[in-house]
Amino acid sequence: MRSNSLRNMWLGIAALGVAGAHPVAAYDAGSWVVRAGAAMVDPDTSSDAIVIPTEPATVLPNGVDVDDDTQLGVTVSYMLTDQWSVELLASTPFEHDITLEDAPVDAGSTRHLPPTLTVNWYPRGGRDGWQPFIGAGLNYTYFWDEDTDGQLEAALGEIVGGPGADPIPADLDLDDSWGLALRAGVDVPINDNWAVSASLYWIDIDTEAEVSTPVADVDFDVEIDPWVYMLGVSYRF
Question: SS3 for 207?
């Protein structure tokens, strides 16, 4: 699994960085810290059942699943004091494929951006060397470019009209999401300005999905709630 590989890489880079760390200038009030690297969104999806209004109703009890994606992640952090910072997470757009859990059917895809603002605590702030941190804040996830797949439209046609029926055209819409974000990480210094950086987020992303067809509209809730793993470098100035 790619998620397991990235977790192992996250731990490995942190361990190597700790082993090679040297005392360097501390993070202190007024410092800016910019981090950049690979960011993987790994959804822990939980979906409502999908009820298709046939006669009798067709129920897909396990709903949908959302796959992972890796993009460029960037954070900008400002040290308010030696131990507290405010930070903004940004990225290039993530794209996720969506599948039906109860059938081998590609349902569609979506793109999203998850800007996240957190307040972080550095227990070693003001001291030289490695800098672990934890934080919490608010996420806003904006969905766009939602598409349905031809496999889903063909499956809907057979569910409603029976085997061999024509596909039913469908549109997908996902509501934007506001939610809590938790985060932890560590910067392991290479020199006075550069460090190896590893970060972990958990983000509460809940959306209402609507699949619209000429026959009927189907609404259901999806909790995406991803873990986000970020590996890269940081620069302090």
Answer: strand
